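Lecture 7 notes: from sequence to structure.

We start with a single chain of 354 residues. Read the sequence below before looking at the structure.
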Amino acid sequence: MSGNSIERVRVAVLPGDGIGREITESALRVMKEVAGEERIEFIEGRIGGSAYDHTGDPLPSETIELCKRSNAVLLGAVGGDRWDHLPGDRRPETGLLRLRKELGVFSNLRPAVIYSELREASPLKPHIIGEKLDIMIVRELTGGIYFGEKGRNGDTAYDKMSYTRYEVERIAKIAFEQAMNRGKKLTSVDKANVLQSSKLWRETVEDVARSYPEVEVIHLYVDNAAMQMVTNPSQFDVIVTSNMFGDIISDIASVVTGSIGMLPSASMGDGVSLYEPIHGSAPDIAGTNTANPMATIISGAMMMETSLDMAEEAHRIYRAIECVLKAGYRTSDISGSDFTLGTIEITDKIIQYL
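Now the structure, written as C-alpha cells:
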C-alpha cells in the first residue's frame, strides 16, 4: 500500500465453547491496544460445540475457508459435557482435530515457563523446581493415535497408532532447530520398548540427530519422562514426542509451572499457523468472570511475534504480564495474593501496564 496507509493483516478468531469467548475477548482487547485498531482485522468463525449447535458440524466449511484466507488463527477452546452424547465425528474435539489437519499444522510448540512470581503456585517444592524452569515441548500434531483408524464392535474397540518416517523426520527437525537456539539439549520421549511405532520414532530421531552433532540427545520412555517431569523438571530443555504423549506430558508441565491457565501454544506447518491456550473449555466456570485469560493473551503475543511481524508489540505484552504478576495481581487459579482479580479485571491491568 502507498502513502501512510497501513496494510492490515487478517486473524481468524474461533472462540469455541465454554470460557472460549471470554478468554479470546481478553486477548483481542490486548492485541488491539498494543497494535492499534487499524493494523489487524479480526474475523470470527465457529468451531466445536457452538458450531455444531448452529450448523450440525463442529467444523463448518466456511470456518475452514476463513482460516485458510487468514494470516493466522486464534482459538479459544472446544468441548463440554453438553455434547458428550454426540457420535464421535460430531463431537466438538473432532472439529479441532479436523482443523489441524486442514491447515497442515503438524508441529505444536508448547513452552512451559515458570514465572519467578508464581513459584509458590507450583505444587513442587522450590528445591525440585530449581533456579529456572524453561521447557519447550514440541508435539507432533497431525499423526499418531488421534488420527489413526478406529472402531468399535460390541465389547471390542480399537485405535490404531501409526507414524511414517517422513512424519517423524519433519517434527524432529523442528525440535532440533529449537534445541540449537536454546540449550542444545533434546529429550525424545517414546515407548520404544513396547510399541513398533515408537521403535521407528527412536530410529528416525537418531538419524536426524546426525545432522545436529552439537545437540545432546536423550531418549526417555514416556512413563519415565512423566516421573522425571515432577521429580527433576529442570533437566529438560527441548522435548519432542508424539501426539498423544505430547498431550499428556505438556499437561503435566503446565501443573509444574503453577497453572494450566498460563501456558500458550503455537501449531505450525507449511501454511497458516494456529495459536491457542493449552487448557480446555472449563464449562463449569464459563460466564463467571473467573477464567485466567493469560494463556490466550500470551498465545496472541506469540502470534504477533511469529506470524504477524509484530515482535516489538509482542514483547510489550510479555513485559506487561510480568509487571502485573510482579505487582501481585492474580486470577483465582494462581491465587495466593490479596489482589485476586476476575477475567476482565486482570485484562484491564495488563492493558494498564502496556
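The longest strand covers residues 9-16. Keep this in mind for problem set 3.
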